[in-house]
Design goal:
429 residues, Histone H3 K4-specific methyltransferase SET7/9 N-terminal domain, 6 helices, 22 strands, repeat, MORN repeat protein, MORN
Length: 429
């Protein structure tokens, strides 16, 4: 065989090494053959394998730490230098770097595949849930609304601590007159002020009383008591305009809160009693009967979204017989308790679907019939809004399925078909 260039170069390098050793008189002679024995080569290979294994374990440990703490560690942060997008772009890379890059790419690819699988599973579950949904939508129940309380804040009229004894003796003598006279502002013994008319030493006629806390009443007085029409202004900005009898609100009046909410109607014993209207600043509006400041009796409650409840109220919430009309066209008519559908009722949907049956705490429970818009219907027992117990589904073609349901799932049933006037029964468990 002919000599190749590498062999020639290797021979020349050996000769050069031998010449140098002669001239330098080195005590050690270079022996390449002895240095690269099969045992030495095997040892080097084992060292490289152990080092590669260490690098691989370190890489996987860092990746696991990154996933655990969700830290934005990039590939070049892990390796300590920039990685190449294409291995061919850097042909002189060490073999260990190529192994690391492959491990990272494989790990990232596995994560992407796992995400894709999980997303597919979620989509399948959603699809299955939608396919199994056999009830018309009924998510917007009246119980989901936050009913406005009539007693948003206690109506406050502190007219019991009025004092009409002037602080000075001169003023005490000044007010003593048998005829009705108007006097300038006079300070009372408790620190309050009164400016207005007097008669026989008492406030009589029209006047303004400013209390110690700066709240005030302006209106008509009879013998030191508010009688007739007057306005009571509170220190926080709330005020009342209406009729008074002996310092007590009686008759028609309007109370306005600082946020714009107000009640206007009949009053008795300083509280709304009788027929009135309460309008809330957030859009609620109630028209109807009040008892001791709260909604009680027949009334109409208008929701901010346009829904309307008309019926009976007890203790400020729907109770008794009433009808709720949702803004999207749904209607419930029936019994209520503590603001929830409770008892016998009928719920109708705009597409013609209808439920006629019983409710407990706002959910279908007991015996009820559900009519679909396509003519199909379910007759049977319910629990917490689901088919539960013995029941029967009748399809538009007359086919019926009798069986037993548990939490909306059929566990046993019999299929009855009507073919040419003949009924055929078969078990379909």
């Amino acid at each position: 065989m002919g000599n190749c260039q590498q062999c020639t170069n290797f021979t020349l390098e050996n000769k050069t090494a031998e010449i140098k050793t002669k001239f330098t008189k080195s005590k050690h002679t270079l022996n390449f053959a002895k240095k690269f024995t099969p045992q030495n080569i095997e040892g080097v290979i084992k060292i490289q394998a152990v080092f590669k294994g260490y690098i691989t374990r370190k890489q996987l440990s860092l990746l696991s730490t990154q996933q655990k703490h969700s830290s934005p560690i990039l590939n070049h942060d892990i390796l300590g230098f920039e990685t190449f997008t294409n291995i061919n772009d850097s042909p002189n890379q060490p073999q260990s770097l190529i192994i690391k890059q492959n491990l990272i790419q494989d790990k990232l690819q596995e994560e992407e595949e796992e995400k894709s699988i999980r997303q597919v599973e979620v989509n399948q579950q959603l699809c299955q849930s939608n396919c199994n949904k056999d009830l018309p939508e009924n998510q917007s129940q009246v119980s989901e609304f936050s009913h406005p309380s009539s007693l948003k804040k206690q109506f406050s009229f502190d007219m019991t601590s009025l004092c009409f004894i002037p602080k000075t003796k001169n003023d005490q003598l000044l007010i003593v007159s048998q005829t009705q006279i108007k006097l300038p502002i006079i300070q009372m013994a408790n620190g309050a002020y009164y400016e207005g008319q007097w008669k026989n030493g008492k406030a009589y006629g029209f006047g303004k009383y400013i209390m110690v806390d700066t709240s005030s009443y302006v209106g008509e007085w009879v013998n030191n008591k508010a009688n007739g029409f007057g306005t009571f202004q509170l220190i926080d900005g709330e005020f009342f305009m209406g009729h008074w009898i002996d310092n007590v609100v009686e008759g028609q009046g309007k109370y306005t809160f600082i946020d714009g909410t107000f009640y206007e109607g009949e009053w008795k014993n300083d509280l709304p009693n009788g027929i009135g209207v309460q309008t809330y600043s957030n859009g609620w509006r109630y028209e109807g009967s009040f008892l001791n400041g709260i909604k009680n009796g027949q009334g109409i409650l208008r929701f901010p979204d346009g829904s309307i409840y008309e019926g009976s109220f007890e203790r400020d919430v729907p109770s008794g017989i009433g009808s709720l009309k949702f803004q999207d066209g749904r209607i419930y008519t029936g019994e209520w308790k503590n603001g929830l559908k409770h008892g016998k009722g009928v719920f109708q949907w705009p597409d013609g679907s209808k439920y006629d049956g019983y409710y407990i705490n706002d959910e279908r429970e007991g015996y009820g019939i559900l009519y679909w818009s396509n003519g199909q219907k379910y007759l049977g027992l319910w629990k917490q809004g689901l088919f539960h117990g013995n029941g029967q589904i009748i399809k538009p073609n007359g086919t019926s399925i009798k069986g037993k349901w548990i939490k909306g799932k059929r566990i046993q049933s019999k299929l009855n078909t009507n073919v040419s006037g003949k009924t055929k029964t078969s078990q379909i468990d």
